[in-house]
Structures are given as structure tokens and as C-alpha cells.
């Protein structure tokens, strides 16, 4: 079971761009927390919360004792120091949230940090300049614009005398995302032209744009958000969101939409039905011209959904052998701190009361093993040990019992917000040589998973604490998947991706 792992969806200051399944501060839609009513009260609250978040993370995060991550303590110290450096300037909810975002960015761990719980009603009014931008691999481009603004397709060259990349680093990546992950440029760069009230950044005032070979300088006129912002922002970097299911945009081409691995009850049934359909009528996949697996919008959830579909496509035993060969020495180490252990045992009791017996047994087993490690004063309970050194390597050769080999080209559409269980899906799909990734670079995971949330003293935020670490996982912390075909089209529509697929199929002939 692979639960939570930052798979709660964070909004970015109520708005506009999805948070890519990453730990980032956000405003809550409903919350009864009492806010400080003086500047001194805000300073006291943010200082107290930063120091408590630091200590809780130090006491419970697996990284504290992870010999494979010697920089963890240094990054945690940096997160505290960078946040505290801004603390005395905090006078309201927007500044408090920005400071917590600064803590998260400095910690550089997408599965840890702080999530604010401040009511959305306290958020400052969002402003925009009448146009939306999107990153397309080599630069920032105007995706859509109101009349009188830079035309769609215009490249942003610089702002306020700084190259646009530097301006994005200063204004955006200093407070959210990780600029060393290629996928995050696709996800976050457009926020350069969203003013969410962060008092520690200077919104662009004048920018240079290049359009059809001509370079012009334009003043940025900030204005209140409107419906255009909401409508355009939804599709600016990942395109439209298709419902879960299989469609056939043309004969013999199967389009499999998997926009989430956190399906609701109706979507779960669709996942089960389409997997069963491929299993029972596998000739449909074997005889297709191509299979497109559309992961746009997918930020993770449970890896079971992609794995069961892979079983249907390639065969369960074949997939299992490939995965065992891919990462044969992976170990799972659970941080056996008192708080983490109590969390797992409490979870087991709660799940049992909800009659979720399988999940309750899972939590109880790990909680009791963590308790045993705690009694022995060990920092970790190791769930899975390395195989013996003399154990033969996994044989991935096809067996007579395997179903016919799937030779149909499989194209997987990847967006920059693909993280967690979405990356697990790529681990599976890319085991097979007939898979081609198209779109953008993915996001990346740390090796820390299975998060829990613990309130901070002010009630304004919760600290995010992973409870386990993957050791010797083949996919390294911070490793992204690069596409074989980068989709540089400004509009990331299904029709444009279909054109990319058709063009590649022609090249294969």
C-alpha cells in the first residue's frame, strides 16, 4: 500500500495553477482558526511555527538518520534560517503564507514541509495583467490574452531589466517548486504573471516581448482577476482534462485517459471496467495502430491503477518480472519515532472502526514493527531487506505461460506535474521498449513517502512529515522522466497530441 505521500491536492493560493502534488502552502476553503490581530502577533506566530516545524521534522523525518542523504540536516537548517530571516516582516496572512512557502522551497523535499490552514477569505485579491503565459521547454510564451495585450505566441524575453529565467527564479521558484526539476518549469513559470499578494517579491512592471521577429517593450498593467483568468489558466500548461476511460478518436487508435490515480467511486469502476475489457479482449490492443495513455492532470494517488492496466496490456507475470529486475534491491525503512509509531497505531484503530480490515491490518503490522524498533532504540524498522548476495538475477525472458507480446506502439503523455504514483506509472510503462513518452519532463519525487500531518501551535498551519524512506530505489530522488518527443505546441490539446502520434507512426513505417 502506498498511501497519502503528498497526494492531498494543494491549491495555490486558491487559484489558478495546480500544485503538482507537491507540498506547498495554501489557503483553506473553510477554517475556524483565529488569526493574529496585530503585527506583533503575526511575528510571534510565524516564529513559533517555524521553530516547531523545524523540531517536529528533525524528530520524526526519516532524513534525519538517512545515511544516503547527508545534506538533509543542512537543508532543514537552511529552511528554518531562510524563513526566520523574513519573519519580522510578517504582518498578515499573505506574508505568513509566503514565509512558509520559503521554508518549503528551502527544505527541497516535495513530501515534507508546511501546509497553511488559513481561511481563503483572508487571501489578498489576485491580480493578473490580462494575459496568461506557459512554459514550452525553451521559454515563456503568451498562451492567451485579452485585447490590447501581447498576442498569443509572443515570447517573454525579459522583465524589469532581468532575463525572464532570472525573473522566474526570483519571483516564483524562491517560494514554490524546485527549479532544478525540469518539469517544474512547465508547471510554475506562468505564475510570474499572477500576483497573489506575496509582499517579498516585486511583480513585473515592464517586459520585453518577441512576436513574429519583432521585439517590443510593454508596461504590465495589473488588474483584478476575471473569468478569462480562470478559464485560460485551467488549460494553459496541461490542456483539457478528459474523463477516465478509453475512447477511439479514429479506428484502431485507443486513447486511454488517466487524469487521476485518486479516483472517486464512479472512476474506480471505469478503471476496473477498462482493465477488464483489455484483459478479456486483448486482441483489441494487439491489433491497434497505437495506444495513447494520457496522464495529463495526473498528480498521483495509488499506483495500483496503472499497474493493473499494465498487467492487462503486457501480462501480469511479465510486468512483475520487469519491475523486480528494475529495482531488485529496494528496501523500505520506517522511521520509528514515538509520534510516527503512535500515528500508525492510531490509524489502525480508526480503520478497524471503519470496517476497512485490509488497510487496518496493514497499518497495525507496520505500527507494531515500528513499536518493536522503538523499544530496541532503533531509528528504523526495515520492512524489506536486500535479497541475499548469492540470489540469482531476475530473469525477464518471456515464458510460455505469458500472453502474446504487445508490439503495438504505446505513447504516454506526460505533464510537468506528474509526481508520486504518476511517476510509479512511468516506472512500469517504460519497462517495455514499445513505450514512448511525449509531452514535457515530469516532476520528481524524493525518496520519502507515507506522510502524516501534525498541527502547529498557532493553528495556522500543519507540518507534513513522511514516515518512511525508500532505500536503494532505482529511480533516484529528484530524478525526472524526459520525453522522447517534447510537445512544444502552445495549446496542449488532445487533437495536437494526436497529430504528434500520427506523425511518429508515419516515421515508423
From TrEMBL:
Residues 256-461 form the Tail specific protease domain. It holds the Pfam family Peptidase_S41. InterPro entries: ClpP/crotonase-like_dom_sf, Tail-specific_protease. Keywords: Signal. The keyword Signal applies. Residues 1-28 form the signal peptide. The keyword Signal applies. This is Tail specific protease domain-containing protein. It comes from Undibacterium umbellatum. The lineage of its organism: Bacteria, Pseudomonadati, Pseudomonadota, Betaproteobacteria, Burkholderiales.
